[in-house]
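User: Thanks for the earlier help. One more: Variant surface glycoprotein. Can you show the sequence and predicted structure together?

Assistant: Of course, both are below.
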Amino acid sequence: MTLSCLLLAGLAIMLPLSAEKAAAAAGDSLKAAAWQPVCQLAEALNKVPSNSKLRLRALITTTQGQRLAAAKLGVYALLAEEAQESKAAVVLAAWYSRLADLNDNLLKTTLVDTTIDAVASSIYVKGRADEALNILAQAKTTSNGCLLTDDSGTLAANGPAKIGETPCSRKLEPPVLESYEKLDEVMDATGWKSSHATTAKADLAGSGGDKTCKLLTVDGAGFGAAKLDADLELGGGLWVVNKDDKQIKTVEIKKGSSTATKTGNMYQHAWHKLQALDSAEQETKPNATEGAEATSELQAAITNTLHNGQEGAAGQPETAVLAVFPKPTGTSINNLLHRANEAQLPEKIAGVNAKTKLRSIVDTHKFQQIEGALILQLKNENAKLKTSKSDEQKDDESTKNQIHCNSIAEVEKCNADPKCSYETKTDGTKKCKFNSTKAKEKGVTVTQTQTGGDGTTAPSDRCTRHKDKPNCEKENEGQKPGEKAKCGWIEEKCRDSSFLLNKQFALSMVSAAFVALLF
């Protein structure tokens, strides 16, 4: 082979290599793989503000529901007739209240800050990417531009919501979401997914050949009047144009670093913040009734409420729960909640009409008002019971003392008794009777409080101590014909004769006043 033939053969081999190198020369446009995944990532980040609001609202709604359930169960515990039902309601109220406290604490100490950080970092990187994409998409003429749609060198058309056929609004437009939507299409537990992230340190220039992008040309013939002193970063460092006009590269965003303190570039930082938001959400305490017997919160509610904080008082914690909510525990709890919802107010209480079902009351403060009113009712009833019991005890003791004294016939023996006196003045009869004043002076415990002038039982006490008609009328036994009755059953009570006289006098005064008005 001649020398000329060898030279021609060598030139034929070198020409394709030169053409391939020229395709990646300074100022070439970005190939589709370099910008389309960034558009998809930026669009997905639009969900972050809406997702964050939904997450906060969901936790707040859950917490409010737990507080409402606790208040409702507190009222139901007071309304329930069975003691065991009241116990279960009180325990469940304490459990729901504890869950609400934990969620409140999560909201105040973690979730609000984490949510703000996640939104701020995500929207920041979205804004950086959107701005770079917008500039690159607009830097286009008929024959030149910065973004290619394929390897053949087709320039991407710039539209309001798309670049080429790729959705890319380059706007912050959070969608209206009905429920939380995870960003599973763009991120996973290790970082941003590869289909939505460019490859690290790769040549991203298009291979179309002659499509030029002056924005990506960093020598004197392009972006600046002279060669730049440093590499040109676009999109927050997502794309890096080498200052020597050799390659366009990107940083790694596919994987987050192992710890949040080593977040690398801002895209990794945003990923870490979104991961923290997901982790915080997993710490919330939902209203999960299935398997509740194994939760420390329900076990503590039973230990503290029913056993005064003595752990093990009712056996193992789970056993103590099952004693109140038999298996299946979730069903037992749900059945109790249903009974509480269907319970009705027995009368008008705290302004809420009688027969109102508890399920129709939707304000925690209203349940608190009802509970307060019921507690006051119970305290009043308890006070009345104590007073009634005390009165009965006084009546019993007074009756015993009177019987004891009445059984003494001799005057001397009667007067010698520390609580008896032979009485002849009050009603004209001569009889040994109980003398409370004398008994007190002699140091005898006495519950009788009202006495006659000589220390004997007053006529009104003699009558009012009787609670039924037969015993009331027995006070008149032994009276002489025509003699004034000592006691009488009047208006369902045992009263002395002075009651009638006073009443007749009052009526006569009213009649006289009425006649005076007429004349």
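User: Great, one quick takeaway?

Assistant: The first helix runs from residue 3 to 23.
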